[in-house]
Amino acid sequence: MSILKKICFFYLGCFFICLAPQVWSQVTAKKLLPRNINVPFLNQLAPSISGDGNHLVFLSDQVSSKRLNMMYSKRTGSERWTDPEVISVIDNSFEINHLRGYSISYDGSMLFFTTLKSGGIGGYDIWMVRKNGNSWSQPENLGKPLNSDAHEGDPSLSPDGKYLYFMRCEKMSMNNAENCTLYVSEKKNRTFWGEPVALPANINSGNAVSPRILPDNESLYFSSNKSGGQGGYDLYLTRKEDEGWTEPVALSFLNSEADDRYVSLNAKGDVIYFSMKYKDKDKIIMAKIPDEFQPLKIFQINGKILNEVTGNPEEAYIQVFDVETQKMVRAVKAPQNTGEFYVLLKSGEMYDLSVNTIDKSIIFYSELVDLRYQEESEYKNVELKLKPVKVGTTFTATNILFEPYTSNIHEASVFELKRLSLLLKNNPDINLEIGAHLAEYKSDSIQSDPDLTEVVIDTILIENNLELSVDNTLSSDTDIYTNNKVGIDSMVMVQKPDSSMVFVNVNKVDTTQVLESSNQPFQLKYTYHNDRTEAEAKAVYDYLIEIGVPSDRISYKGYGDTKPLSDVESIEKNKWIDIRLY
Fold first, then answer.
1. For the whole model, what pTM was predicted?
2. CB neighbour class for 130 (10 Å; exposed up to 12, middle 13-18, buried from 19)
């Protein structure tokens, strides 16, 4: 080989050596968490992350090499986490816990775990602790019938908090579980859970363990050692379909010859957290999930509720209704000490979201969340400063809508209208004015836009002294082309003898008298426009009267385009309703 060829091969080889790590990272998209989480020379494993990606629970031997402690850390930036702290209310003894058998709820407020601690129902039971600010409550057993004489473990709470997925096994120990079946139990109230129901046979084949319900509430990850896998336990994906679940599909992008079990996803569903060996130690890894293995698209809101006057957090209930079915799909509470809340919604529907404080003298917050055409998962972080009920206060009733090109109230408005009624009931000393507004007034001499549904007809007096015939005059409320009634009118139309038309100004002439004398010629001028504000305000007024609001406590007015939008970004429509307290 010539010297020139050797040099070429040398540089080509260097190029591929440099390129190889980049190609590998593009394919696997794996990344270590920061060093204060993945402490060097120690083990960190089995991560569980909240839906908003801000709360992390994992096991580590950094406190004692003789045991794995359950640790908690909170995200403080895109790449920053607080130094982990031991969750001391949980006994981390090897002898009583099913290691890795825990998960944090999507809102980060509850932690479920598996233990043999005293006070249980049978063998290993599922227990729970609640997060209260910077501390955790004492453990609570989930009780019968969820827990039984057998062994229950590896719990996973659904995003809406209504269902708990878990495994029930004949045998269980610190690290192993045998002859397991996956179940789901529905929550009956704050304390009790319903009778568990086994998932279908296409899921419960082999030894099915470690279920993880995904953010869309319809996709499920789980592990199984059934035949056909890559070795040990492999991860699978199944989705709800009609009354059953689809045939499980192996997570080929992640499965290995080792046991693949304990994983966790953020609510966006595009990143998975797990642990694997790295330089002879277990480390927490995050990896990109291929599209086909991701849950359905979702929308999540992480919020904080404050009193606008005091700046203090407010205790409140957050409710979400499906507009089409008018059924409640979410109900969460923001505690008084923080005012924080987390809501997760799946795509495909329109939702009415409202915040109602425990203090009835504070005005509610509302928002219509339209996810019918959502293409990507979204995350929204909000700080809501709520106004007190006070004479002179004005706020926008954002969830009052009208059918297109009419003053008919849209069905999505029913929740907002009921909130206005309740606001008056809870505050008997105030009244409210319903003000309908228009951002952009449009008009034309013809109906050139479907939004131009209203018509004004003006009488035009011909200013010159032409001798005109008034034989073809029309009544003042009749369309000159169809003879249909078109509305109140102060004009008539006449033609010149040659059938031509002349437009002139009106000088406060009495139309009736002019017609009777037949000496002054007139013509009708039509102006089509989109100002339905008076009719819209009246429609809201009528609805409130219909549901029992006293007529002496409300009034209405159509303002047209006389008032500019107070917040253009928050009202993405041409029309809106303002409520003024008086």
1. 0.69
2. middle
